[in-house]
Amino acid sequence: MPTSRPVPPAQPAPTVPPAPATQRSQAKENRRQALLVAAASLFAVNGFNRVSLEDLGAAAGVSGPAVYRHFPGKQAVLGALLLTVSRDLLEGGRRVVAETSDPLAALRRLVCFQVDFALGKPDVIRVQDRDFSNLTPQDQFEVRTLQRNYVELWVEVLARLHPADDAAELRMRAHATFGLINSTPHSVRTHGRKVTAKSARPLLEGMAMAALTVDVQET
Questions:
Q1: Going by C-beta distance under 8 Å and a sequence separation of 6 or more, which residues neighbour residue 103?
Q2: Element (H or E) spanning 46, and its range?
Q3: How remote is the C-alpha of 90 from its chain's centroid?
Q4: What proportions of the chain, in percent to the nearest 5, are helix, strand and coil?
Q5: Residues 80, 29: Cα–Cα separation, whole Å
Q6: Is the sign of the CA dihedral 154, 157, 158, 159 positive or negative?
Q7: Do the Cβ atoms of 170 and 159 come closer than 8 Å?
Q8: 194: β partners
Q9: pLDDT, tens digit, for every residue of 46-61?
Q10: Is the pLDDT of residue 156 over 50?
Q11: 182: how many CB neighbours lie within 10 A of its CB?
Q12: Is the dihedral of CA 109, 115, 120, 126 positive or negative?
């Protein structure tokens, strides 16, 4: 009677790396991003209601009807623009907090992160301020939720620096700082002259840190 031999353990199936994006799908994504960039610029200058799909297509190098290959309509373009930015801010803020244990260093990095956004995407700030009401109710809810969660990241860091302050006061600090930094689209131009990002950055960062770290004395 033959002796039984131990069965060798099954080898795991080799992992197959995901297939690289096809040239066609990458081109489609590039076109979608070009439409969002064009939308930010056109909506900021002219307002959502005065921009047509034909305007968006022309600015992105496609025909007006071709926009429908990427978005169901102009309102969807606005929604994608503001949702994408809100998600990027929240994800970036979470990375900062996760990677920085010291609260003062984390706050400084959050400020720099927000200043980078304000200087890099001033058109989006204008669109948010002026055309938020043109979003669908669902997109308004999602954008507000993302932005509230972003504020709470700042509140968590501020609470470690100002343990005696309640959450409402810390939110006020955060919102006031956003107002300061996000005024960039208006403040970088004075009497027709543009303040460069190189000059604006240290001023915005310094003012923001001063507002966030000042201790308020009771009177």
A1: 157, 160, 161
A2: helix 23-46
A3: 7
A4: 75, 0, 25
A5: 13
A6: positive
A7: yes
A8: 189
A9: 999 999 999 999 998 8
A10: yes
A11: 21
A12: positive
pLDDT in tens, 90-125: 999 999 999 999 999 999 999 999 999 999 999 999
pTM for this model (two decimals): 0.82
Give the whole-angstrom CA distance, residue 3 versus residue 5.
6
* Contact (Cβ atoms closer than 8 angstroms) between residue 131 and residue 139: no
Cα–Cα distance for residue pair 200/12, rounded to 1 Å: 56
Instruction: Concatenate the DSSP letters of all residues of 169-207 into one string.
Output: HHHHHHHHHHHHHHTHHHHTEETTEEPPHHHHHHHHHHH
Q: For residue 98, how many other CB atoms are within 10 A of its CB?
A: 10
Check if the beta carbon of residue 135 is closer than 8 Å to that of residue 82: yes
**DSSP result, 70-113:** T-SSHHHHHHHHHHHHHHHHHHHHHHHHHH--SHHHHHHHHHHH
Q: Length of the chain, please? A: 219
User: Half-sphere exposure of 192 toward its Cβ, with a 13 Å CA cutoff?
Assistant: 0
The Cα 158–Cα 195 span in angstroms is 30
Q: Which of these, 160, 162, 144, 123, lies nearest to 39 by C-alpha position?
A: 123
